[in-house]
């Protein structure tokens, strides 16, 4: 959940990581890592046991054994790059597909829906070729590791067999060597095989951003908390400074593109200042647990999403406004042009209805319509950046 909420997460990447990515992590955590523990312990135990029975065999194993991890590391470096390319291709495909689905209405309206199928096909082809390339490397490396391990076992077994024929070694010692020698190589071979099965999981873990050790400090109680914009610069806002007292109703006015909605975005925590700070009750909003903060804020966006769609835009706006005002427990109300699509008569009625409700509740609203200005305690003008 913390990853999903982390700022800057891109939808396509997140969709790939939390679906296929999560499945891919299991072979790494439950397969490769435990196998690495065995690969570190078992060969040492075999060498120590054989050192007491047949020093030559123990030395042969000790010398040939490192060849397996050396070859595995050489092939592994190659595998890592290929797997990363494969995962990137999958993320690009997932992200693009998601964008196309989201924007299908607009694409159809402009007659560009068909063109997208070509792009999706190209991305799918890229993913197929990246996957085939990863598989080729995986098969090749399995072959290399099997070959190295088999030759190493032969280098131990053949001399022991010859010495047994010459009478240079007892039968029970030769049997012990022949039975134990393959066991020294087995965990390393298995780790090599697990490495390929788990490479995607490792790439996924590398892609998940470093998450903060905690989700931020508790959201300040808005009752009695002053909201302060301290020389905030972001998008079109330049050194924007504003103090909002608890319970105050403020209207933001100004030309299109001046940054009124950006001010609401800053208060929601969706937009982060490039410089300056937004303080609530003296706490920098950047440090506040965003999920908890959003539970305290009621927001009506400029273009509300309301199901069903068969409502008119004005009706949709009224539903969205009622939905925001129904959040009686909220400590801050952010309303972006709440009456923009209403006729003057309906607007007057809506404003009459919410007048009593908003009195004494901290409210920031974006106002283009003059009727809204009578409903607030203060009007703040935001000028377009020069
Ligand atoms: N997601 C975004 N990323 C980057 N810049 C953006 C983004 N959204 C808006 N902007 C830019 O930020 C500036 C301020 O936009 P904003 O929507 O805050 O203006 P506004 O005053 O609310 O305008 P309007 O009255 O037309 O709604 C504009 O120049 C706009 O292009």
How would you describe this structure to a colleague?
With 386 residues, the protein is α/β, with parallel strands linked by helices. It folds into two domains: 2-207, ABC transporter type 1, transmembrane domain (ABC transporter transmembrane region fold); 227-381, P-loop containing nucleotide triphosphate hydrolases (Rossmann fold), CATH 3.40.50.300. 61% of the residues lie in helices and 12% in strands. Strands 6-7-8-3-9 form a five-stranded parallel β-sheet, sandwiched between helices. Strands 2-1-4-5 form a four-stranded antiparallel β-sheet, covered by helices on one side. Strand 4 and strand 5 form a beta hairpin. Helix 2 (11-53) packs antiparallel against helix 3 (55-64), helix 2 (11-53) runs antiparallel to helix 4 and helix 4 packs parallel to helix 7 (171-207). It is elongated. The two termini are 41 Å apart. 30% of the residues are buried. The model is unreliable at 210-214 (pLDDT under 50). The structure holds adenosine-5'-triphosphate. Residues 235-236, 254, 256-262 line the site of adenosine-5'-triphosphate. The site of adenosine-5'-triphosphate has 10 residues, from helix 8.
Give the distinct bound molecules. Answer: adenosine-5'-triphosphate
Helix content: 55-70%
Uncertain residue ranges: 210-214
End-to-end C-alpha gap: 41 Å
